Automatic annotation (TrEMBL):
CDD domains: M28_nicalin_like
GO biological process: regulation of signal transduction
Listed GO CC annotations: endoplasmic reticulum membrane
Protein family per UniProt: Belongs to the nicastrin family.
Gene3D superfamilies, sorted: Zn peptidases (3.40.630.10)
UniProt name for this protein: Nicalin
Keyword Glycoprotein recorded: yes
Subcellular location: Endoplasmic reticulum membrane
Amino acid sequence: MAGGGQGLDSISSAVALILVLFACVELGDAATAVDVYRLIQYDLAGSPFGSRLADLSHHAGSAASAVPGADLSRTALMVPLKDLDLGFLREYITNRKPLGGLVLLLPQKLREKIGIADDDQGDGLMRNMLSEMEQLLVHANIPYPVYFAFENEKINEVLTEVQSNDATGQPATATTGGYKLVVSTPEPKKIVSPAITNIQGWLPGLKGEGDANQLPTIAIVASYDTFGAAPALSVGSDSNGSGVAALLEIARLFSRLYSTPKMRGRYNLLFGLTSGGPYNYNGTLKWLRSFDQRLRESIDYAICLNSIGSWSDELWIHVSKPPENAYIKEIYEGFSTVADELGFKINIKQKKINISNPRVGWEHEQFSRVRVTAATLSELSVAPDFLKSSGGLCDTRSLVDETAVFKSVKLVAESLARHIYGHRGRGIEIFADNSSLAINPFHINSWLDFLSRTPRVAPFLSKTDPFISALKKELSDHTTDVSVQHDVLDGIFTFYDQTKATLNIYQGLDDLISILRRPPSRKSKAA
């Protein structure tokens, strides 16, 4: 009987342990879950870049656990941007040191309209760090999962506990418990035949009686897609949301101006929203190739709008032809006159195209390659580096000053109208404030806000994406003969899916529980 009592006691203890473990499971399951955004994964000419893994299941560690000699191969580091040591990150990436995973915590203010301000010294340093970090991650081959998440109350509580444990020298392991970070997601797959979509609309001019000649054309163009470290966060409010919003407002203004037959100028206006901007303006190249020779020869010049939402007192006109060229000189003088009236300065800079090098820095260079006169209007004084300044994590709504966009619209619209109607000099204002042809700030702001909520990395936009439909509808409201051109991004780029996931944070003895859940080994069965 004594032996039987001991057996019952053992069974009772085992049952109690199981109940405790199930309680732990419930507690673990009741931990927090947050949205996370994966670092982009892509290949460039066959070379791998970005985060090459998506699945994550490791214990959480803080920056304090990254001491010299520490084995972090089974640790997922949680690091707020404000605590990030770029030297440490660069060392781990450059030397390919083992790391279980990396979760970078971004400040909530990045999501807000006030955001990170350039005029605040602390915010300026943070913006610079974020930009440098993004370039480091995007241009490296990283063999572990990297995710971005936004700080919130729950995740900050977890981080505080993780930091406290690391500070005492007791980081989370399979035996000590702690927090475990889990992202369960399928293995990333290649995106087959990534689409790029160009949208165009016309405002036809008015021919004179007996005029059999084809009317000349002015093209207004803006690239709408983005590229950034986290595709699901790449909204590109300034680059190039500001250019897109400006183009749509210019189309609206000239639609009203051309609505009266007597006011239709002897110029056709062609509005183009192009894709593939970060990828050497690949969509622009394919759009131009779709033009027949007659259309190309009819274009007097094209104005490309790029990053015009974050400037105060000067803009740049970038050209391929010398400023002394008659067409370029006319464009520059016309824009300079209007800019002077509006109280700011226009600079001009020539960058010759190298026919033997397919790399272009500005959208207008694709026009120049097919012998069409073109210029880019931008707040940037030099062309961005490849895959840079194309809608990164910093490029949010807070970066854009709507007043800068209003002034850019007024500059382009007024300069084009004076050219179309042959008005020279000062004292003529076609799009006057408080008139029926005045700029509509609400229209511009609504599009800036919409674009700032919409990630637009081209390979992740389908042909039927609601965003593409919204652009087409808006252009259809103001122009005629709207058409959409679908094409495939050139094969030098390969992109992978799985850009967004859920991070589950478990607490407690989940490793012990998983061990107990495993089927017994043959030896234990025999015993």
